[in-house]
Amino acid sequence: MTTADSTRTSGPQALGGPTGPRGNDRPGLRTSGDRAAIARARLEKVITHLLVLVGVLLSVFPFYWLAVMSTSTTAQIFGYPPRLTFGTSFAENLRNLFSSVDILSALVNTIIVSALCAVLVMFFDSLAAFAFAKYDFPGKNALFVLMIATFLIPGSLSLVPSFILMSKIGWVGTLQALIVPGAANAFGIFLLRQMASSSIPDELVESARIDGAGFFTIYRRIGVPMMRGGLAFLGIFTFITAWNDYVWPLIVLVDPKRQTLQTALQNLNSLYLTDYGMVMAGALISVLPLIGVFIIGSRHFIANIAAGAIKG
Questions:
Q1: Which whole-number Å values give the CA distances from 136 to 126, 131, 219, in the listed order?
Q2: pTM
Q3: Residue of 197, 195, 189, 120 lying closest to 149 (CA atoms)
Q4: CB 3.0–4.6 Å: which of 4, 6, 70, 146 could bond 280 by disulfide?
């Protein structure tokens, strides 16, 4: 190498001159605008987390307050200022609860009714929704519109006709009167029909038909897996609705041994004196299974939503 070549090599290029990296472009160095953008992003992230935390606390506080009241006496519940710490009367409230009503039988009856209603609704609603979404038959649109129109009818209007029907077939006072009328509903059919229409390709169904698969085979192997997220939501929603139902069980269950949890807890309210600690203990027992069902079912629901988002 000549002296001129060595001079060119050790010139401005080697020292990071005009053709080398500029000061503002070097890694680790940022402009004031970049630092401001990073600070804003961090501030937005902190504010978002704080809002989520506040929302979680507001959602959890009613359950915490229910647990506090279930461990307190009536005088402590109505005391001022209200106590936010747990009391020592939970065992006494439970003893009074079990001596006042047959809470275990009511709990078993409620579990049976809610579980069967959820299973039947998921089965029948998914069958109807899959047929409405992927099959053509005479009167399909008219039947679907008629089904949607049932949303306009208040549920209270069907109480008297339903009771007369249950009386005619001899189901008054039995759990069948709660299970069979709730075995299907228009809301679930509409929800799953919309999901099946958008998530199940027509080509997949047609290819299964060409291979000789029947309706129930296609439904079981294609429809159910593709609607699993909607089925999880519908099962949770139906279970909670059946669990919290009060008016219809109060009307049709005339046998005290066949009461559900909500109607049994209603008997704790006295005309002159009510032990609210005992009532809150019963309410806590009625809420805990719902929390467990929601946690178990929501895992499948959220997992299917996440899978759909990844596929999308």
A1: 16, 8, 15
A2: 0.78
A3: 189
A4: 70
